């Protein structure tokens, strides 16, 4: 499509894919969406991005990044049938972290039918220079239906400038906190008790942390994530990525057969107790009692809130000595080859931490994702992204136990 062109969007549910080519010196890029009424958001809740990944209506969700060779995609899922009637258009934006879009090769946005996977529209950006944020396109209502328009409007003020332009209140960590009010010198009679209204939601925080091989660790406390819930999400491509592998073996992959990955956690408490949280054996854990880790559910399709989710209760972090988060293949493939997955650790307070899994080049069925260790009253997150190959007759769980010296006894289980 050319800039300014538009096409109908007949599908009720679409996948908006932002893509580019990675490489040395290429900034990271993030997709976002703004739901607008009369050109502005109604509130900060109408902004969907990496720190606020789902709209309250359920109509728009940020599904996260995937890598494949030298290509990277960041995806938004949009259920047009669930978009509130008041919403007139959905702006599809991109922001560059660590550089300008002139350094990002092959930048494009495309809209796909979520059910069929067919491409409905595509716009390739070819004239970016110093911009650090872009409106690549927009979905808008027209005569009872939806259309997509290629926009290609750049901003030099980054995601903050773009968001502010549409009415978002952005938290500025450089802004000093307001001074407390001076106490009144005149005594006043005690006021009758009353219900305290709920505080207004705070401004949107745009900060995030990306772990790499060169910078693999981060302190949660230094990012403001010292209490509340820490949500760990594993998001992956659930269909078609293993079809090439299966074809080489001369097997057909059924269209309904999805890859079933299991997000798990080995834990060691401060008192020495050890265990595992996993779907196998229905060991889902508990959030408000030991081990203070809970697996939200067993996602056998890759569609459960954008993957599998596990929660750690940071209010009890002093009772945790170490936690190893890992993933196993339960069925659907014999290896992680061609898996494109993103791991995101999202503390209730503070910046999210994300990293990508490396390409798998070994016949691995278990991957260590992240290691959380208790150090001086803080939990430190270390990116592992380590693929392991179980010896013949050894389970993936026992394999990862041996690699990290957990020392547990394992018995067969099922789910």
From TrEMBL:
Q: Which Gene3D superfamilies match?
A: sav2460 like domains
All copies of domain TerD, residue ranges: 2-166
For region Disordered, the annotated ranges are: 171-203
Q: Where is the signal peptide?
A: none
Where composition is biased (Pro residues), the residues are 189-202
Family of the protein in this entry: Belongs to the CAPAB/TerDEXZ family.
What is the name of the protein in this document? TerD domain-containing protein
According to its UniProt entry, this protein's organism is Streptomyces purpureus
What is the organism lineage in this UniProt record?
Bacteria, Bacillati, Actinomycetota, Actinomycetes, Kitasatosporales
């Amino acid at each position: 499509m050319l800039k300014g062109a538009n096409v109908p969007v007949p599908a009720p549910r679409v996948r908006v894919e932002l893509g580019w080519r990675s490489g040395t010196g290429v900034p990271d890029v993030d997709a976002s969406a703004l739901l607008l009424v009369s050109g502005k958001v109604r509130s900060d809740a109408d902004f969907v991005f990496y720190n606020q990944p789902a709209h309250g209506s359920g109509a728009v969700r940020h599904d996260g990044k995937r890598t494949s060779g030298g290509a990277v995609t960041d995806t938004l899922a949009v259920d047009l049938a669930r978009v509130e009637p008041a919403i007139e258009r959905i702006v599809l934006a991109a922001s560059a972290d660590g550089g300008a879009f002139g350094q990002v090769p092959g930048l494009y946005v495309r809209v796909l039918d979520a059910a069929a996977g067919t491409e409905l529209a595509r716009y390739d950006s070819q004239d970016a220079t110093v911009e650090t944020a872009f409106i690549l396109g927009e979905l808008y209502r027209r005569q009872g239906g939806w259309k997509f328009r290629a926009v290609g409007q750049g901003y030099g003020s980054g995601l903050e400038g773009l968001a502010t332009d549409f009415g978002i209140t952005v938290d500025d960590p450089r802004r000093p906190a307001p001074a407390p009010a001076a106490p009144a010198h005149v005594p006043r009679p005690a006021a009758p008790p009353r219900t305290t209204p709920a505080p207004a939601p705070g401004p949107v925080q745009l900060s995030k942390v990306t772990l790499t091989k060169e910078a693999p660790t981060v302190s949660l406390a230094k990012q403001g994530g010292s209490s509340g819930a820490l949500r760990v999400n594993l998001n992956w491509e659930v269909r078609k990525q293993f079809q090439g592998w299966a074809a080489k073996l001369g097997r057909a992959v059924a269209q309904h057969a999805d890859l079933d990955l299991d997000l798990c956690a080995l834990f060691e408490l401060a008192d020495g107790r050890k265990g595992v949280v996993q779907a196998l054996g229905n060991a889902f854990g508990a959030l408000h009692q030991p081990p203070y880790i809970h697996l939200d559910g067993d996602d056998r399709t890759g569609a459960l809130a954008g993957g599998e989710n596990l929660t750690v209760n940071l209010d009890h972090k002093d009772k945790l000595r170490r936690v190893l988060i890992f993933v196993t293949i339960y069925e659907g493939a014999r290896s992680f080859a061609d898996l494109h997955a993103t791991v995101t650790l999202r503390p209730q307070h503070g910046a999210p931490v994300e990293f990508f899994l490396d390409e798998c080049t070994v016949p691995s069925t278990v991957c260590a994702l992240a290691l959380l260790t208790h150090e001086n009253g803080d939990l430190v997150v270390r990116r592992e992204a380590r693929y392991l190959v179980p010896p013949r007759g050894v389970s993936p769980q026992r394999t990862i136990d041996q690699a990290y010296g957990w020392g547990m006894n394992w018995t067969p289980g099922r789910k």
